[in-house]
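Why does residue order matter? Because the sequence determines the fold. Keep that principle in mind as you read this record.
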Amino acid sequence: MLDLQVDEITPALAELAGKVSGEDPYLQGLRVAVNRPGVVRVVLDLKSEVKPQVFKLKPIGEYGYRIVLDLHPLQAIDPLIALIKESEKRKQQPDRQAVARLATIVIDPGHGGEDPGAIGRRGTREKDVTLMIAKRLKALIDAEPNMRALLTRDRDYFLPLRTRVDKARDVKADLLVSIHADAFTRRNVRGSSVFALSDRRATSELARALANKENEADLIGGVKLVGKEDHVVRTIMDLSQTATIDYSLRLGNAVLRRLGTVNDLHKPSVEQASFAVLTARDVPSILVETAFISNPEEERRLGDESYQDQLARALLEGIRDYIAKHPPRPASPLALN
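Structure:
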């Protein structure tokens, strides 16, 4: 429970209880009441034991000072074990063609939770669009005989950038595709883009600005960062730079070609910048800007289910093109015998 030194229950505090979903893995419910004059008590009813972490954040963006309470499981779920179990199920399906190795694709829907990402003039939120496209892409990949997909998040909750990277590394992913729908100050800017990590300078001012914006997501979401200024630089220096970035560019080019069949391209080639979400060691990773949500026409299309299907299929075809030329490593816990 938390005791807050406030005079009354504010509208924001009163709405907290309604924000707890029945699907929440840790919270059964939440109660807010005046405990004594000048103190409002927040009680969290837990489903299981957790490791709590409480800290405060300074104002950023539209948020003022905040108290952040993170709930961590006592024992984290191992995503690799979950994927292995799913692979075993696939072996038992008679209509499945046997393959030497399942390619593991991690799909990362950008933003989530208190970080909505970019918001269009119609109110379309980037975090919602990215999750819908990601789910469609996962369904398409899972239908492929030689691929398996994992979502970094499957619901509307905040996920730190470092956790997204760790999820890809934990399952020994072959690829990571982070899905976004950015905004720009000029409403006429449009088109799809694909980005890879850069070990040098960004390839354009827009790529640099976009990377800076995306890397601030942790601050908006309430992550307590230590030494964040040089985190990306240190990670890049730890990478097998040449090989990983080279393969990321190959993946990016394959995906960009396919995206060009369903939308205009903002740039004809893959751009590069220091995106924190693309720093998974030994995992070729790309960030896809499906469209500009700040463009009225592209915002409208992003909200259309059939267009989301087209984008997801273009991503699948790009991934398929890449894997055809660069099959996954044969040694893997997910190998099918």
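The chain has two domains: 2-73, 79-325.
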